[in-house]
Amino acid sequence: MGFRPGQAKGPSVGPLSGGGGGGAPATATFATIANEAATLPNSRRLVAGSNVSFVDAGAGSTLTISASGGPIASPYAKELWPFATNETESAISQAGTGSGNNSGTRAFGFISEGTVTISQMVIWFSQVTGSNFRLGLYDAGANRIAQTNRFAPAVGINVVPLIAPVILTGAMLYYMGLWTNDTTSNNRYLVLTGRSITTTSPNMQKSDPNEMPTTIGTAFTNTALRPWMMVSG
């Protein structure tokens, strides 16, 4: 048989059914990187939550999802030993008592509650004079890892930024350091009392007559007084 001009030389093909012209089924559910609700009304867009990130390498490649541990909640540190009594206010001398020569650096052991970036330290004064102070942090090997600039304290809570932030590793031993050039007992802190000073553990306190030294030893008498201090993110 012959063909007339304009007549198709094969069977005719109609549109595909249910596919919207060959696209994805409109009723299907998709998770998408971009917002594609206009063409996929049942789609859900992927959104990175806290401590999660996406790296999209583009069409035909990969989507990498990364997650990291989030910041721990305050408090960031815990004491090594319990206290017999609660808060009071006192100076802390080189002799470990509440009166006498306060000058020098004392550092008090604590355990970091998690891996966290610390950018400031906090201390509470109940009485101040014209003396200078400096706060700092030491690692388990008694090496200084961070410090503040010198500051003149004010009565009440003092929030003092570190010169540079430092990362503390969870469940590790550190020391909060406190230095002053006050040779009297006229600067006084809110303190915790009753800390045991008879323990055989070497991890309780460190001390040095110098200003926040690079490494710190045990030059002074241990004290049952611990100043109200904390680390903060």
TL;DR?
The chain is built from no helices and 16 strands.
The count of DSSP E runs of length 2 or more, i.e. the number of strands, is: 16
Helix content: under 10%
Please give the CATH class of the largest domain.
Mainly Beta
SSE arrangement, N to C: EEEEEEEEEEEEEEEE
Oligomer: single chain
State the major sheet: 6 strands, antiparallel
Find the CATH topology of the largest domain.
Jelly Rolls
Structural features, described:
The radius of gyration is 32 Å and the shape is elongated. The protein has no helices and 16 strands. Strands 5, 7, 9, 10, 12 and 14 form a 6-stranded antiparallel beta sheet that branches. With 233 residues, it is an all-beta fold. The chain has 2 domains: 31-67, no CATH class; 77-232, Jelly Rolls. The chain has strands at residues 31-32, 44-45, 52-56, 63-67, 77-79, 87-90, 104-112, 116-127, 133-138, 144-147, 156-168, 173-180, 188-192, 205-208, 226-227, 229-232. Residues 10-20 and 69-76 have low confidence and may be disordered.
Distinctive features:
2 domains; mainly beta; 16 strands; six-stranded antiparallel β-sheet; Jelly Rolls; 233 residues
Question: Secondary-structure map with pairings?
Answer:
Layout (H helix, E strand, L loop, with lengths): L30 E2 L11 E2 L6 E5 L6 E5 L9 E3 L7 E4 L13 E9 L3 E12 L5 E6 L5 E4 L8 E13 L4 E8 L7 E5 L12 E4 L17 E2 L1 E4 L1
Parallel strand pairs: 1-2
Antiparallel strand pairs: 3-4, 5-7, 6-13, 7-12, 7-14, 8-11, 8-13, 8-16, 9-10, 9-12, 13-15
